[in-house]
Write a structure and sequence with these properties.
The chain is an alpha+beta fold and 346 residues long. Among the domains are: 97 residues; 84 residues, Sandwich (Immunoglobulin-like). Bound molecules: dinuclear copper ion.
Length: 346
């Protein structure tokens, strides 16, 4: 009974892994679709081989039983038959390997051909354990920097330039593309395209230290008009605090070590050692997908990041309750934390 329950649970767990926002089997773009096709053809071929092997094994077991009953049955002829069978199996294995190689070769060619004409270039840099995101633009004043959340216009190819600042990470948004490593000193490029609007979750796919599992990324594909509006909003400086509490929060932020690592556009905070916090309240998650964005979670994170993500470079700030209340008011943020109009940190 216990075994059955364990079996059912793991089976259900396996199946839930096949759908939702982070699944290679639920593709939403040309590269994802090509890879899903490859996964299914490998799976089909391997299933046929597995069934054949099981069939041959069953026949062998039955024959072995018969032979045990009559040990003298083995003769030269059946020895020859066995050798022939082994030879055929070797040839078949070789053919199957060639077949799989050809399939993946053509899939690779298709992937390489996608989006050669991408207009938008986004630089994604891996850090332990978060993603820096920077939208390239020929005009320096129109470069947008953000973190852990990549907005893209749906239906358009976007070029991602992948780099790493410390160790090897791997960028993987299963519904849209395969994995590609971010290697220190190396520049890798990948074309991302989502054919439908939606939020796609990604995950660092190369073990990169204690909090590797908490290195998530969101790709938000939206209609071009919405994307352009988002982009313009990101270019704005952080809004001036409109309440006394928000003013206290801003002063706290600017007078604490926060400014040593973070940037908030329009203030003296201009470091890029940690995530850019301009318009942080407009993002859906905190600490690279570790927590959903809400006022309470933001306060909890600032109060004690080490208990939420042990090993993170974000130190404990030792703020009082009143100070936390001031630093995390997130003006204009909606209850679910994804109001794109929320632009203020303070
Ligand atoms: Cu970064 Cu694993």
């Amino acid at each position: 009974k216990v075994l059955a329950r364990v079996g059912l649970t793991s089976c259900a767990g396996f199946l839930t892994g096949c759908s939702g926002v982070q699944s290679a089997l639920d593709p939403h773009g040309p590269a994802g679709e090509e890879l899903a096709r490859l996964i299914w053809s490998f799976t089909a071929l391997c299933t046929v081989i597995w069934l054949m092997v099981m069939g041959v094994l069953a026949v062998a077991l039955v024959r072995r039983r018969r032979q045990a009953a009559d040990p003298l049955e083995t003769d030269v002829q059946s020895e020859h038959a066995a050798s022939r069978a082994v030879l055929m199996a070797v040839v078949a294995t070789g053919l199957v390997l060639v077949c799989l190689t050809v399939l993946s070769f053509f899939a690779n060619r298709t992937l390489a051909g996608i989006g050669a004409d991408a207009e938008l270039t986004i630089e994604v840099t891996g850090y332990q354990w978060w993603w820096a995101v920077r939208y390239e633009n020929s005009e320096p004043s129109r470069i947008v920097t953000t973190a852990n959340e990549i907005h893209i216009p749906s239906g358009e190819p976007v070029r991602l330039v992948l780099k790493s600042q410390d160790v090897i990470h791997s960028f993987w948004v299963p519904a849209l593309h395969g994995k590609l490593d971010l290697v220190p000193g190396v520049v890798n490029t990948l074309t991302l395209q989502a054919d439908r609007n939606g939020t796609y979750r990604g995950q660092c796919a190369e073990y990169c230290g204690a909090q590797h599992a908490h290195m998530g990324v969101l790709v938000i594909a939206q209609p071009r008009v919405e994307f352009d509006a988002w982009y313009e909003a990101q270019l704005q400086n952080a809004a001036e605090p409109s309440s006394e509490l928000a003013r206290q929060g801003r002063d706290l932020f600017l007078n604490r070590p926060c400014v040593m690592c973070h940037k908030v556009q329009g203030t003296v905070a201009a470091s890029n050692a940690g995530p850019d916090l301009t318009h942080v309240a407009s993002r859906k998650t905190l600490a690279a997908g570790t927590l959903s964005m809400s006022r309470g979670n933001l306060a909890a994170w600032i109060a004690d990041p080490q208990s939420i993500k042990p090993g993170t470079r974000m130190p404990t700030m030792n703020l009082t309750g009143d100070e936390l209340n001031a630093i995390a008011p997130m003006e204009g943020i909606s209850r679910d934390g994804c109001n794109s109009g929320a632009r203020s940190l303070f």
